[in-house]
Amino acid sequence: MKLTLLLIVVAYLMLASPVTGSAQKRPVVLDFDKTADGKPLDVSLTGRLVANGYLAAADITLSDVTTGTQVVIFDLRRFYEGQAIKAASGNNGLTQVPSNDPVSFTLNFKTPLQSVLFTRPLLLAGPTGVTFPEWKATALDAKGQELDTAGEGSSGYYSDAPAKTFTLKGPGIKAVRFDSNNHHFAAFNAAVLDDLTLVQ
């Protein structure tokens, strides 16, 4: 009798919780303030760190980086003495330097993603306003075909612009290309992003 009851309970649990074939993984969040092993990432002395190694630790490679530029982890307090932008978390963000011409780079992911999220940090207007570049993020599949886009036009802000989170939807995102144009007058060379979140 006990064995029969046990078998009934096991069968019920199997029906109530079907095996999907793959456990859902937790999103990976790159806040650019901690290394892959959780140690603080302080770039305040130099103001920046070339991002290739940091991204590689998260199985992300860079490609199609505009000649003469670098994708860097930047201490946002170093922009205009902290009076123009504030990181969504910690002090660091990801951006591209040092050109005022149109620039681009591509993040390539080892594993296809369901979605990619990131935050454009808080923009501080200060007494004279602040300008932010025109930018566009494009999610691509394994064949390089466009899946989704997000972006903002070049804008001047005369009051603080709250941080804004953007979502690129898949499935099957294998890369995200960022294109920026500061039109030779925006306060930053290229888009600045924080809290890059990868959802499998």
| Tally of contiguous helical segments | 2
Question: How many angstroms separate the termini?
Answer: 44 Å
Low-confidence stretches: 1-22
- Based on CA inertia axes, which overall geometry fits? globular
Helix and strand succession? HEEHEEEEEEEEEEEE
Number of domains: 1
In short:
The chain has one domain (25-199): Jelly Rolls (Sandwich).
What does this structure look like?
The chain is mostly beta strands and 200 residues long. The protein has one domain (25-199): Jelly Rolls (Sandwich), CATH 2.60.120. It is built from two helices and 14 strands; from the N terminus they run αββαββββββββββββ. Strands 1, 3, 7, 10, 11, 13 and 14 form a seven-stranded antiparallel β-sheet that branches. Strands 2-4-6 form a three-stranded antiparallel β-sheet. It is globular, with a radius of gyration of 21 Å. The chain starts with a helix and ends with a strand.
SSE blueprint:
Blueprint: H1 2-16, E1 28-30, E2 48-50, H2 52-56, E3 60-63, E4 70-75, E5 85-86, E6 92-97, E7 103-120, E8 122-123, E9 130-132, E10 134-140, E11 146-152, E12 155-157, E13 164-181, E14 194-199
Antiparallel strand pairs: 1-14, 2-4, 3-7, 4-6, 5-8, 7-13, 7-14, 9-12, 10-11, 10-13
What brief labels describe this structure?
14 strands, 200 residues, mainly beta, disordered N terminus, 7-stranded antiparallel sheet, single chain, 3-stranded antiparallel sheet, Jelly Rolls, 2 helices
